[in-house]
Give the backbone structure.
Amino acid sequence: MDNYTVLRVIGHGSFGSVLLATEKSSNQTFAMKEIRLLKSFSDVQNCRKEAVLLAKMKHPNIVAFKESFEAEGHLYIVMEYCDGGDLTQRIKQQKGKLFPEDTVLNWFIQICLGVNHIHKRRVLHRDIKSKNVFLTHDGKVKLGDFGSARLLSSPMAFARTYVGTPYYVPPEIWENLPYNNKSDIWSLGCILYELCALKHPFQANSWKNLILKICQGPIHPLPALYSSKLQCLVKQMLKRNPVHRPSATTLLCRDHQRIWRTDIR
């Protein structure tokens, strides 16, 4: 910690805190994730996995990794600071005013690029949500927080244990089925819906009812402002059978984009 000056706490999570810090030698500002290391060896190894995975992810639409180190019983992961906050904050700032479709698609395509990058490297994010998507003041969108990520043994492998945020968790997880990168696509579809409707696609007054809605309930149409093509895209990503969801690569291919994408400026 001797190389950094902590300015303030900018976030909290089950893992610990996120600090805003300045590197003394360069005077650059970074976000620093502070994770308390538990005594269990396996728990410590799991904490370190996030730093290892993040270090491998070099892409303009993924929060950049600088370094990690351990001090006084904590693991510190130093990352690029995104000065525009996260998508959850940005959605709240709208106070009910809908985003233009071009803005929604601009952000969506950037998130897709980040997701495609990690999926090509056999990494499942497993906690894609608006709070883990970050903005910069110059219009960049970046996927972050790899604390729940999992590296698959092969492109065709499936995972069985899951950690994530209930609003974004796909039906196959609630039904205790094995899952793969299509689970991230469902979560990405939830974000796209949220960007359009300014609310989650599935809402309920209890976890039991939320799970029922995710597994069986209808998906309410997007506000009338948005095109039928965008509505179709959301429905594709929120298919309950993961086999029928497009991959990130498919979403980004030119032929597929002709179906739904307007010209993004």
